[in-house]
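From the methods appendix. Each design record in this collection lists the tokenized structure first, followed by the designed amino acid sequence. Records were kept in a plain field format so they could be parsed without special tools. The example shown here is representative of the layout used throughout.

RECORD:
FOLD TOKENS (469 positions):
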């Protein structure tokens, strides 16, 4: 290893300062309440090669933070320090972690909340930071337009130019993961706020729910409502999260009506069209479909190439077109992964000062490419696991709770989390519309059992190997 890498190993004061900045950004993004409930307890560990370790006091917290904030933590770290490629979240008791690391930035309180909606440390803080800040990288200029997204792009532009025009209110953007919904929403927001006169509130549906629950608990729902109703533009991202959350849906419905009646603009995103979002209240679904509904389709090869070209050019590193074509062929699922792969190539090129070639690409992206060679689906996992324990496939989604079916179901959820890139709520939905907390529980339960029971661990490992092919 060259010296540049060796001197990055271990926890240096630099790393501590970077960590402090990562925390600050994350705090600004998620708000105080979530930060205190989940993230404050993270303790910085060492940086070894390209992997930074972060410690959490309990497995529950570790899984929750990994599921909800893992990707973002990684992105923020990469922005701070281009040597960091991976963030490894580990369970470690506070005292051990502090001893292992020279910089325990804060002394965490080792509490273990029972559910994600557990009472945050200070509820009144929920009122002060209503919306998440906009990501300045997500602009219309940095959005590459092609056939699959040109309609959604045009609608977003139109709303940014002339908010609240009839026919475009609400604007409902939908499409699969990583296809640019959040990017477009931020672009609308930045465009509108750049003039300074329009107030824009952007938040994920999940955050909307947390804010709402926090407001109820701190008896400040009136303020919450007033604040929401005072904005010119309200944007709610990933609305599918509100499925099954009836009270929150109700609140959103009323806010929605109040804003539209007052001539304000609403922008909503989801993974499906309003008519396909089963589990949403009918009247809400109807209202959501009343404005403009725009679909972002899966990327085409041409669009992937254009996106890669634009991003490579912006990075200043020269990437041969053969490499771009190779990536566009291999990574077809979503733009986020495509971008992640390219970023890693660029980081390596910068780090080692070597040109990017097809050969170095295969080497540097070995793990990503391997994962894309074989995509395991949740259905496959359910099938294999049911066969293995001789239960009916339908029991993967049934309500039966007998151990004989519940345990295999938990294993299937665990494997789904490990082997696919599906989020916890998405996995839950595939298992008879279970809540994401159930999936989270299954993951930690199986991890725990595997540690205690070698025969069980062997079973699970066997299944994993079979599925990975
Ligand atoms: P979604 O919200 O639909 O899951 P995002 O908006 O978060 O997806 O996009 C994932 C990543 O891919 C972001 O970094 C975004 O900037 C990038 N991205 C997606 N589509 C495009 C595009 N057409 N042009 C440029 N970047 C894109
Ligand atoms: Mg998004």
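DESIGN:
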């Amino acid at each position: 290893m060259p010296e540049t890498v060796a001197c990055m190993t271990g926890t240096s004061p630099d790393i501590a300062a970077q960590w402090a900045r990562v925390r600050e950004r994350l705090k600004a993004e998620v708000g105080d309440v979530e930060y205190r409930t989940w993230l404050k307890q993270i303790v910085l560990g060492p940086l070894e090669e390209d992997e930074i370790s972060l410690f959490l006091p309990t497995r529950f917290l570790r899984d929750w933070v990994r599921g909800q904030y893992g990707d973002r933590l990684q992105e923020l770290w990469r922005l701070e320090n281009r040597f960091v490629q991976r963030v490894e979240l580990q369970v470690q008791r506070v005292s051990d972690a502090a001893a292992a690391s020279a910089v325990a930035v804060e002394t965490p309180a080792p509490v273990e909340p029972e559910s994600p909606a557990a009472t945050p440390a200070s509820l009144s803080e929920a009122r002060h930071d209503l919306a998440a800040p906009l990501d300045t990288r997500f602009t219309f200029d940095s959005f590459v337009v092609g056939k699959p997204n040109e309609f959604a792009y045009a609608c977003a532009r139109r709303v940014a130019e002339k908010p609240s025009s009839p026919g475009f209110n609400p604007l409902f953007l939908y499409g699969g993961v990583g296809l640019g919904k959040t990017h477009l929403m931020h672009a609308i927001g930045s465009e509108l706020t750049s003039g300074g006169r329009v107030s824009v509130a952007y938040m994920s549906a999940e955050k909307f729910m947390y804010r709402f629950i926090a407001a109820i608990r701190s008896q400040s729902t009136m303020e919450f409502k007033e604040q929401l109703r005072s904005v010119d533009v309200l944007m709610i991202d990933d609305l599918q999260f509100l499925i099954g959350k009836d009270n929150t849906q109700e609140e959103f419905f009323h806010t929605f009506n109040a804003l539209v009646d007052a001539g304000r603009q609403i922008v909503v995103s989801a993974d499906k069209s309003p008519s396909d979002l089963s589990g949403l209240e009918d009247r809400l679904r109807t209202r959501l479909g009343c404005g403009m509904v725009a679909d972002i389709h899966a990327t085409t090869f041409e669009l992937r190439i254009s996106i890669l070209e634009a991003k490579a050019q912006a990075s200043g590193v020269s990437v041969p077109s053969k490499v771009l074509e190779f990536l566009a062929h291999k990574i077809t699922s979503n733009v986020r992964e495509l971008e992640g792969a390219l970023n890693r190539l660029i980081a390596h090129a910068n780090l080692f000062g070597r040109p990017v070639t097809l050969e170095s690409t295969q080497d540097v992206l070995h793990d990503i490419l391997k994962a894309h060679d074989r995509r395991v689906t949740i259905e496959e996992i359910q099938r294999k696991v049911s066969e293995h324990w001789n239960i009916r496939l339908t029991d993967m989604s049934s309500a039966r709770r007998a151990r004989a079916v519940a345990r295999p179901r938990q294993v299937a959820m665990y494997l789904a989390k490990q082997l696919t890139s599906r989020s916890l709520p998405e996995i839950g939905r595939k298992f008879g519309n279970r809540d994401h907390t159930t999936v989270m529980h299954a993951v930690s339960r199986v991890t725990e059992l595997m540690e205690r029971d070698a025969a069980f661990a062997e079973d699970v490992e066997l299944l994993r190997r079979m599925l990975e092919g």
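APPENDIX NOTE: Residues 163 and 265 are 6 Å apart (CA to CA).
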